[in-house]
Amino acid sequence: MHLKSLTVKGFKSFASATTLRLEPGITCVVGPNGSGKSNVVDAIAWVLGEQGAKALRGGKMEDVIFAGTAGRAPLGRAEVTLTIDNGDGALPIDYTEVSITRRMFRDGASEYEINNNQCRLLDIQELLSDSGIGREMHIIVGQGRLDAMLHAKPEDRRSFIEEAAGVLKHRKRKEKAVRK
Ligand code: ATP
Ligand code: MG
Description:
The chain has 180 residues and is of the alpha+beta class. It has helices at 37-47, 121-128, 145-150, 154-165, 168-179, and strands at residues 2-9, 18-21, 77-85, 97-105, 110-114, 117-119. The structure holds adenosine-5'-triphosphate and magnesium ion. Adenosine-5'-triphosphate (ATP) is lined by residues 12-13, 31, 33-39, 63, 65-67.
C-alpha cells in the first residue's frame, strides 16, 4: 500500500485543481518559502478527517478554502482527493485503488467520499484504522511533534500503543456504543 496521488482544488493556496503523483519510496517537495509545501501536508491531514483548524495552521476551518489573491477571487469550496494504491489488499475493501475525498463549503459543511460514493467520516476512519494511516495516526510528524511524543502523558502514550496494536478502532466503537 502506498499513497498514489493527491489532488487539491480550492484548498489553501491551490486555487486550480493540482495533482501530485506520488511514487513508491520517498517523495520530496521542494520550493521557495510560502510556495505551498506545507499546504500539501495540510491537505493530506485534512482529507483524512482532521477537524482542528489549528492543526492545519489556521484560525478557523474555513481558512482551508482558497481566500483569493490580488488577481483571483476567493472560492466557495475546498476539495482534496487522496488516492491510495491498495494492490496488496492492506485496506479491507475490494478495490486495488481507493480514493478518499473531502469537500468543504464556506458554511462549514464537509462531505466525504470513498471511491466517489458519499460516506461518513467514520467510514473513512474505520477503513483506515488498521492501516497506519488516518487522522490520529502518527503519519505526519510536524515540527516539535517528536518532542511532544517523548514527553506525552501516560494516557496519551497508551493511545499511541493502542493504535500501533490496532485496538484503537475497537475502543472507539465501544465508546460510541456506550454514548448511545
Ligand atoms: P516555508 O518554506 O516557509 O515552510 P511553504 O512552502 O511550506 O513555506 P506554505 O505554508 O505551505 O508554504 O504556504 C503558505 C502560503 O499559502 C502563503 O502564501 C499563504 O498566503 C497561502 N495560503 C494559506 N492559506 C490560504 C488560503 N486559504 N487561500 C489562499 N492562500 C493561502
Ligand atoms: Mg512549510
